[in-house]
Amino acid sequence: MIRFRLPMRPIFERSQKQRGLLPVLAGAGVCLLSFILYLMTLAPTVLYYELPVLRDSAVLQVKSYVLGIPDYTGYPTYVMLGKLFTYLPVGDAAYRVNLASAVYAALAVLFVCLIGYLLTDRPVAAAAGALAFGVSRIFWSQAVIAEVYTLNALFAAATIFVFLLWRRTRRDRYLLLAAFLCGLALTHHITSGMLIPAGLLFVLVAAPRKFLEVGLLLKAAGLFLLGLLPYVFLPIRASMDYLPEGWTWDQPKISKYPPDTFYGFYNLVSGGAWKGRMWAFGPAELPERFSMYLDYLYGNLGQFNIALVLAALLGVFYMIYADASAAVLLSVPFVGWLFHALEYNIEDIQYYFIPTYLVLGVFMAVGFGAMLDAVNRLSGRLPSVVRAGILALISAAMLLLPLPGFTETYAAVDRSEDYEGRRMMDAVARKTEPNATVLHHRSPLYYMILVEDRREDLTLINYLEKNAGAPRFKGIPEARASLEYGPVYLLLPGETTTPYYMGVRDSQLLYRRVGLDLIPVDEDALLYEVVRRSVRRP
């Protein structure tokens, strides 16, 4: 009877003294490979509004450039880092903000690999888990556009890595760095708050006496507060007159309660108008929501094949048995992030699953490491050459496991030829009359005026004729009022009507009922002129 003898904590204790370039090369390799893939598929210029895949990208590109304040939680760290990227001498400003997402994503993959190595001391296992995460479809799709999710993944992975580095070295400076990162991560995405209880429980399990060191606790608290410093950007920027005269973002809640007031600041960083969508589902609805998560995980929309999921499950059980503190550090935020996503009623909910995929990538690394460790023991009596050959074959198979479906994923996420946003801008710039009003919704027109300084004579009005639930007709009264002063154009968000906006035909019918016509100006860009039926142009 074969008996498996699991090592004591931390995992793979017997090989912890291994040193060399292999772990460095593994981490650098998956980081570089991921970055090359992201660069090859990166959006080349300004983006546009398209639900659910491009809700905020066009706006984030502009607000990074002008140091504006985005909706939801303000994202001060994202905006300030994005501004730094706009100074790079490559592409246009929009491309540079897209590039920031690729850099954050590649670094997140690097830290996932480093986490896997700290838990397994197996460079190949760590690289395989990191690669599986790096080429997963949803994460990859966010690495090629201006969005906040790859920076969120980077902060999560870096914080977990530093906690584990503290456990390995027992140097308090890493614990203090982790406290700082917990605060800094919170200024980017409120879901990062799950790292705080996870870190506290991790330290409690790994070294409970640390909670008796008052000096250390005070330093950690101070560094955590220092990490929150980017929040200061919000009231300072809100109090500044940094936009052209008369310019306003379509942010009614922020305009009413600006973040340079106490309530306005609290309202923004706690989720703003989107707080009402949190905790939206009751217990009876959670099984269906969880089924949706599984579908994204390995079903029809799957990020990982079944072999990778099984490797992650092996890693979960292995860690629970052999490494309680690391299991706590990973499982607490995983459960918190998953529960938050399942309870959040938002159209692009799949992007809130990304932190859970990151943790699963680490679990995959642990599962692969456990398999390599078991094979190494079972083949202990074989000749060293034979054993090395077996381990090499298994290692190669692990590195290849994330690759099935790679071609389809590449095609699905590739935005390297996506110039739709620039075509929309060019159509408006060339085909609208001077001093006109353009009704649009979160389009690249903000970029055209504020970044490229083109057509500054235009007046932009953000609208959305919504066709879900109780219809919300904002564009029609705005168009009527604006027609008193000059030409009015409508830049539609999509050709076809969706639950979120009305398409071309339905918009034309709606406007016709109130005595207005939509005359095509550029049908490819979905640009139409709004005219009164009695003065319709030939």
Notable characteristics:
56% helix; 23 helices; single chain; 538 residues; five-stranded mixed β-sheet; mainly alpha
Secondary structure: elements and pairs:
Elements: H1 22-40, H2 57-66, H3 76-85, H4 93-120, H5 123-134, H6 137-142, H7 149-169, H8 172-186, H9 195-206, H10 214-227, H11 233-238, H12 252-256, H13 262-269, H14 286-298, H15 306-322, H16 324-342, H17 354-378, H18 384-400, H19 406-413, H20 420-431, E1 437-440, H21 445-450, E2 459-462, H22 475-482, E3 488-491, H23 504-513, E4 516-522, E5 527-532
Parallel strand pairs: 1-2, 1-3
Antiparallel strand pairs: 3-5, 4-5
Helix pairs in contact: 1-4, 1-5, 2-3, 2-4, 3-4, 4-5, 4-7, 4-17, 5-17, 5-18, 7-8, 7-9, 8-10, 9-16, 15-16, 15-17, 17-18
User: Oligomeric status of the shown chains?
Assistant: single chain
The largest beta-sheet arranges its strands as 2-1-3-5-4
Overall morphology: globular
Distance between the termini: 90 Å
